[in-house]
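I would like you to help me understand the sequence and structure tokens below and explain how sequence relates to structure.
___
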Amino acid sequence: MKKVRKTEKIDQKKPKIKRKETEKALRESEQKYRMLIENSNAAITYFDTEGKCVLVNRQGIKNHGGKDITGMSIYEIHPEVADFHMQRFAKIIKEKKGAEFEDSFELPDGKHWFSSNIQPVIDKSGNVKGIQIISTDITEHKKVEEEINKLLKAIETAKEAISINSGDATITYTNCAMDELFGYERGELVGKKPSILNAGPEAVAVMKEIMDGVEKEGTWEGEVHNKRKDGTEFISYARISVLKDKNGKIINFLSTQHNITEHKKAEAELMQAQKLASVGQLAAGIAHEINNPLSVLSGEIQWLLERSKDKKLIKSLKSMDRVSKRIALIVSNLLTFSRETATKIAKLLNINSLIDRTLSLMERRFKLTNIKIVKKFDKSLPDLIVNKGRIEQVFMNILLNSLGAMPNGGKLTISTKLSSTKDAVEIIFVDTGSGIAKEDLSKIFDPFFSTKPTGRGTGLGLSVSHGIIKNHGGSIEIDSELNRGTRALIRLPLKQEKR
């Protein structure tokens, strides 16, 4: 019996030892977890279901300006947004499902942003006992994000066309100005090669020059001939730089460019004007030098014609008279070109009527050459203040050029309309003639330049026309392709001073 009692005493000690070991392990575990919570860089807080803070770690206290919020309600901690947070807590408690949020709070050192993971704490019975919040301060990240967004907004709204290409030159980004400049929809260029944007036979050579430049110098800039989605060509000024990795390998190309087509046109017009001014001064001097002896010569020819009875001599004199008149016409054109002739006062006239009047003078010649005239006149056009004789001279020069370009017949279409800007009248001549070679187009307004055979033109027609239209405040453009015909566009402003 005694042995049995001794054994019973020994068995009663075992549960006590195990309980102590378990309690010790729990305390150690609790200390570890508390240490982890206290030393965490994330702010950890625990609220009961009434919105009262039960626990907050060191980082949480720091985030609240060093204030221990334990025992405080959400209405005491963040009174301005307490209702919002309580609604959030209520939803989490009801759904028993956590969520992630980004919030901002005003702390003693300013506004801070936090990324928070909020989870319900559920007991064994399935009831929510509280809310656990783990928050990370993302203020610096937000600042960087804000700066990036500002930069992206600046790039998106920039007037310069900006694109980014990968190391193999594939387009990875374009801003709005880039898409608009090339006529593509937003994002349509992404994934494509820049070669689809280049125009002209020199495109391959230019691309090689660009690649050589960026590889050697890290940057390249210059003029590039481009084309829009619809095939329209234009000139842009581009700057291209590269981004390299730590090994020196190119990982991105950055391109900025803007359209300089109008600038190039203006530059060409200025050069043309300077050229014409110089030649004009020379032409005026030559015209005056020729005019004086020519007047004497013409007078003598007329005197001899009136008095001579010799038929052979009369025939020779008439031939000389024709030549002198041709010289006089050239001199007249030279003086017109140099703008030294006195012009008649401009009047309010109808452009359609002026074209019809000029056509009537050449109607027979067009019929003999089997050229069909098609008129597309806007009858509602307002009258313009123009110098009748000078504008008719311009029309005559263009009609003569079309006649010469279609010796075997063809079609000439003449249109008039109001410009899209409603501030000018446009007169358009389109023929189906032989056209002008591309290399000659830049010289067509040069004095004495002609594509006609020697002896069949003075080379002053378009030069004189250019001067007349400019003097009216307008513009004249010639577009042509060899064996594809020519298009002449004249713009005359609605409002202009009498000249």
